[in-house]
Design a protein that fits this description.
The chain contains three helices and five strands, in the order βββαββαα. With 129 residues, it is of the alpha+beta class.
Length: 129
C-alpha cells in the first residue's frame, strides 16, 4: 500500500475502547476539509483492525490510545481525491507487512499440503498404507 500525498489537517479526538479478550482502539475524530465537516475512526490505511494501531491486549491498546487524549487536537492526513478517507497514522507499519506475510504463508501451506506431506513422508500418496 502506498501513502497518499496527503495534506495535514486538524482533528478533534474522542477516543474509546471496545473490549473482550482482544481489545480494539476506537479513536473517533472530526475534521474540516474544503469547508465541509467529516468524521472518521481510521487510525491507519488498514483501519483499526490491522497491525500498528489495531487490535491487541488491553495494555497495548491503552498505550496506543494515550497518543490521542480525549478532546485533543491532532494532525489528520486526508486523501485530497476522496476527503472521506483520512488517517491519523499515515504509511504502512512493519507489523502490517508481517501480517501479510503470515497470511500468504498460511494460504500457501494450505494450497500445497499434499506436497509438504510428500516431502515429510517420501513416496506416500493420499491412500498410502
Amino acid at each position: 500500500m502506498r501513502s497518499f500525498n496527503c495534506p495535514q489537517y486538524i482533528a478533534i479526538v474522542s477516543p474509546g475502547i471496545r473490549g473482550g479478550t482482544v481489545y480494539l482502539p476506537i479513536v473517533s475524530y472530526s475534521y474540516n476539509y474544503d469547508g465541509r465537516q467529516y468524521q472518521s475512526e481510521s487510525l491507519t490505511y488498514l483501519g483499526t483492525s490491522g497491525g500498528y494501531g489495531g487490535a491487541g491486549l488491553e495494555w497495548q491498546v491503552n498505550q496506543r490510545l494515550n497518543a490521542f487524549p480525549p478532546s485533543s487536537t491532532v494532525s489528520v492526513f486526508v486523501n485530497p481525491k476522496v476527503p472521506t478517507e483520512a488517517v491519523l497514522l499515515p504509511g504502512v507499519h512493519w507489523s502490517q507487512y508481517v501480517g501479510l506475510v503470515f497470511v500468504t504463508l498460511l494460504f500457501l501451506g494450505i494450497a500445497f499440503i499434499g506436497e509438504i506431506l510428500n516431502f515429510i513422508w517420501p513416496g506416500c500418496q493420499p491412500n498410502c498404507r
